[in-house]
Specification:
Elements: H1 2-6, E1 14-15, E2 18-19, E3 26-27, E4 43-44, H2 54-69, H3 71-74, H4 100-120, H5 122-129, H6 135-142, H7 149-169, H8 172-199, E5 201-204, E6 220-221, E7 230-233
């Protein structure tokens, strides 16, 4: 972090203390070399976004120094890395110095999460603060944004609709319906399990001993009486029979031993 703030951000990659240890000094130009070993002629590594303003450079360096002091809290001691999700990394890797699109994604992630938490507490707010309360109105008031009547009406309809849906789920008919659905789901699972046991289906794609079998790739279902195992295979015998799969079978007309 100290090398990043002092040298790398200004496109300086070699200093008295050494060089940047988190990237190669030469970049591949043929797009065929490995990242760790550049064998082609290549070009000198250059920082993508260079900070040219001295004021911003000092601010960036101060922020890097703060992060370096908290390295034991951010970087995992065994993995040797910090938080990789830039949207969630609002507490780690220099969020104030990211590009605008990444900063907007990060803020959108935080806002969506907080809105979801507020919406999840609407039942408590309805019971404690009354049916007229909505967290959106409170948010607008904190941001000094005027709330137009159409927004109030829409929020009120949403609150009433949500409350009616919750009350409907508490009725005896809804509870009985949920119980019936759970029972039916369990019975369906048991029926499927028993059906699979009764079928005794063996799926196979052939083995090493099926060298003489056909390779046309067609799927064959062999109905075997007396409750034997039904074989579903991707191969069939060369003679075209669906009762066996090998030419060495005694019923196969292509059996060499019979001739």
């Amino acid at each position: 972090m100290r090398a990043l703030g002092a040298y790398h951000v200004r496109n300086i990659h070699e200093c008295e203390g050494g060089q940047c240890g988190f990237h190669q000094m030469k970049v591949c130009t043929c797009k065929e070399c490995n990242d760790d070993e550049v064998e082609c002629e290549g070009t000198v590594y250059k920082t993508k976004n260079v900070v040219t303003c001295d004021f911003h450079w000092i601010a960036y360096q101060i922020e890097c120094e703060r992060r370096a002091e908290d390295a034991d809290k951010i970087i995992h001691p065994e993995m040797g890395r910090g938080h990789l999700n830039l949207c969630e990394a609002h507490f780690t890797v220099l969020p104030q110095f990211r590009s605008k699109d990444q900063s907007l994604c990060r803020l959108h992630y935080m806002t969506s999460t907080n809105c979801g938490l507020c919406q999840g507490n609407m039942t408590w707010c309805y019971e404690v603060r009354g049916p007229q309360y909505h967290w959106v109105i409170d948010l607008y008031a904190r941001l000094n944004i005027p709330v137009v009547p159409c927004v109030l009406e829409a929020l009120q309809r949403a609150v009433e609709k949500r409350r009616a849906a919750l009350e409907k789920q508490k009725t005896e008919a809804s509870k009985h319906n949920r119980i019936n659905m759970k029972v039916a789901r369990v019975e369906d699972q048991v029926a499927r399990k028993n059906w699979g046991k009764r079928q005794a289906v063996q799926h196979t794609y052939g083995g090493d001993d099926d060298e003489e079998s056909g390779d046309d790739g067609s799927t064959v279902g062999v109905e075997v009486p007396n409750g034997d195992v039904t074989i579903i295979s991707g191969r069939k015998c060369k003679c075209g029979s669906t009762e066996h799969r090998r030419t060495s079978h005694r019923a196969c007309p292509l059996n060499k031993k019979k001739s």
